[in-house]
Amino acid sequence: MSSTTQTHPELSAIFNKDEARVEWHDETLWWIRQKRDKAAWTIPEWEKLRDTASAIKDNVLSNLHEYLLEFEKKATEKGIMIHWAADAMEHNEIVYSILQQNKVGQIVKSKSMLTEECGLNEFLSAKNIDVVDTDLGERIVQLANEHPSHIVLPCIHWKKEEIGELFHKHLNTPKGNADPQFLTNAARIHLREKFLTRRIAITGVNFAVAETGEFVVCTNEGNADMGAHLADVHIACMGIEKIIPKREHLGVFLRLLTRSATGQPITTYSSHFNKPIAGQQVHIVLVDNGRTVQLGRESFRNSLKCIRCAACFNTCPVYRRSGGHSYHTAIAGPIGAILAPNLDMKQYADLPFASTLCGSCSNVCPVKIDIHQQLYKWRQVITEEGYSPNTKTAAMKVMAATLSKPALFNFAATAGKWVMKYFPFMVGNKLNPWYKQREMPAVPKESFTQWYKKNRHE
Amino acid sequence: MNSREKILAAVKNNQPALQELPQVMYAEAIRYEDRYIQFTTVLKAIGGTAVEITGTKEIVDYVNYTFTSHQNFVTTIPGLDGINMLDEKLDPHVLENIELAILNAKFGVAENGSVWITDEEMRIRALPFICQHLSVVLNKIDIVNNMHEAYRQIGNNNYEFGVFIAGPSKTADIEQSLVLGAHGPKTMTVFILV
Predict the structure, then answer these.
(1) Cα–Cα distances in angstroms (integers) from residue A296 to residues A173, A371, B11, in the given order
(2) Confidence category of residue B52, pLDDT binned at 50, 70, 90
(3) Which of A272, A324, A377, B104 would bridge with A332, disulfide CB 3.0–4.6 Å?
């Protein structure tokens, strides 16, 4: 979806120019992380719940072929039309063909990260289709001609005064009014008109049940339901990994999803679409777009367990301080950094390096994806394939050579100390990316080796 | 090969050896000493209102007192005096004018304050989303502890559409300020029949 050639460090540097904003962004997301903690602590069996969810997803990935066939059969029996899309382009073409068959040029769409991943909005607008995103946060970024910076909180990087200004321009709200209640109501009125007049609604899918052929969509706003129940045609787009085996498994995932995401006990609406309304068309587009490749990568297949709660975003010290757009991909954050290189290792080679590997992401993940370990593994794969960021590669090579030869290491350590003492600007300059935002430590009087030689007891 | 065959072949080829499906954890799941108190506490916390009643007359009195427009009230529950029964043949778009909808709920869930409603209760799917205010009626004994019990209750019921609704429609997309009434109902009242 992104045409930018800028890397995560470069884009973060732009975000970091406004320090007060970074601070605000960081604190807002940390507050959500804390709400997640409080919600998790109300459930004594929380860890067992995570284990169960993770094990269900392990089973899904190991039996996906059968579950997809079962889901297709059950859904088809109910009159739902199933489409299969190998990649983003085919997904977009399928959606477009349904619009054409129904002679519809204006649609509403609720939140679907898959359609973001596939660049559906750009594709359709190039064909003169008017797509209105109906999630409030998504509508805000859409009006601003931007992409979501967060998968659950699409406009988390926007301030209310800026949204007031945006609505003044597009929705004719009074200039200077930045009251969230007022602005939300303005959007409600603006979007009700769209819900009532558009004949095709697109939604995402949170879970699709193989056993029954039904699918579940979760929202707080009610926008997926407003769109789907008022439309003649409902198109639901999903990645093939969204399948779960049985209806009873929804209990496990719905308990985890929103507590992990925003700290709510459950979303306001968890809608189970089992059979089409009489006379309504329901289409499901099952999308691969690299997922089968990721399934075959043993080290990375666990990333397909993701239920898109964004807990890993909210806890990540790098995400909180660099903003979602610095990831230059539809799904930002730690999970995005392990999904994106699968799609294009060269374009997203920088993302697995956008992490401190602190492991906080893995600790909050409701389905126990080993996110930080996968980030570490991607770095190795990317370096082996020759895609690692240039400055890092050069530094790593010098370090590897130095560490492998004790005499050279001793010399380097002494030399380093000497340089730091007499020529600190040689390390503390703009050519050394590590020095950005950091102070160099005071130089010790002696190195550890020197200290050890003096103090060791024979 | 078409895309369906290609995808299925790739899945089959790349999926790892079968891993066993775990048991859903009924035994370990949280239970509450008083499910009613837990349910009403959570419901309030998520922006809903709980009203304890002993008979349906109290519902009529309450809504007439609270929703002062007194117009466009609709219900699918027979016997609510003075409140129109929903005409099931209506085009859902005209429900845009509904001020208040009153529906039965099949059961409530203590751990998250939600109620389970299917097409059987709503008759027209758009109804509980498009109305300005939503009220549901729940029997006090029909409150389960947690979502595992909820799905056990649902079993293999062949509803056409079902939804857990937890409080009024809401958003916090503008600077994380909670606003009730995003696209759906601005309030949600749960009448609990004791």
Answers:
(1) 51, 17, 8
(2) very high
(3) A324
**H or E element that contains A269:** strand A269-273
Looking at the DSSP assignment, which residues form a beta bridge with residue B13?
Answer: none
Q: Name the residue among A85, A229, A262 with its Cβ closest to that of B126.
A: A229
Which residues of chain A make contact with B12, given a CB cutoff of 8 A? 65
Residue that the structure tokens 């600790």 belong to: A363
Q: Which amino acid is at A348?
A: Y
Cα atoms found within 13 Å of the Cα of residue A335, Cβ hemisphere only: 29
The ipTM value here is 0.98
Burial class from Cβ neighbours inside 10 Å (0-12, 13-18, 19+) for residue A324 reads buried
pLDDT at A159: 97
CB A110 within 8 A of CB A204: yes
Token reading at A195: 């819900």
Ordered alpha helix ranges (H), chain B: 3-14, 35-45, 56-66, 119-122, 127-130, 147-154
Predicted confidence (pLDDT) per residue in A400-428, tens digit: 777 777 777 778 777 777 777 777 666 66
Given a contact cutoff of 8 angstroms between Cβ atoms, the answer to whether B173 and A137 are in contact is yes
B177, A160: Cβ pair inside 8 Å?
yes
The predicted model scores a pTM of 0.92
Interface check A41 vs B, CB under 8 A: no
Q: State the alpha helices, DSSP H only, in A262-332.
A: 291-296, 311-315, 317-322
Size of interface A-B (CB pairs under 8 A): 248
- Please identify among residues 47-86 of chain B the ones whose CB lies closer than 8 Å to any CB of chain A: none
Strand B84-85 to B73-75 pairing = parallel
Distance CA A438, CA A361 (A): 24
Closest residue of chain A to B149, computed from CA coordinates: A251
Three-class DSSP category at B109: strand
pLDDT in tens, A159-210: 999 999 999 999 999 999 999 999 999 999 999 999 999 999 999 999 999 9
Mutate to test the interface with B, among A64, A220, A293, A300 (most CBs of B within 10 A): A220
Interface membership of A152 toward B (CB under 8 Å): no
Give B193→chain A minimum CA distance, Å: 22
Give dist(CA A319, CA A384) in Å, integer. 26
CA A245, distance to chain mean position in Å, is 24
From the list B114, B77, B76, B158, the residue with the least C-alpha distance to A255 is B114
**What is the residue-averaged pLDDT of chain B?**
96
Q: How far is the C-alpha of A110 from the C-alpha of A190, rounded, in Å?
A: 15
A229 vs B125, B152, B185: nearest CB = B125
Measure the CA–CA gap between A290 and A292, rounded to whole angstroms.
6
Which residue, A313, A389, A305, is CA-closest to A347? A389
Residue A368 has φ and ψ, to the nearest 5°, of 55, 45
Separation between Cα atoms, residue A311 and residue B63, nearest integer Å: 40
Residues of A234-262 as b/e, b for ≥16 C-beta within 10 angstroms? bbbbbbbbbbbbbbbbbbbbbbbbbbbbb
Going by the DSSP 8-state scheme, the letter that residue A345 receives in this structure is: T
Phi/psi of residue A84, nearest 5 degrees: -120, 130
B139 burial (CB, 10 Å; 0-12 / 13-18 / 19+) is: middle
Query: How far is A249 from B49, CA to CA, in rounded Å?
Result: 29
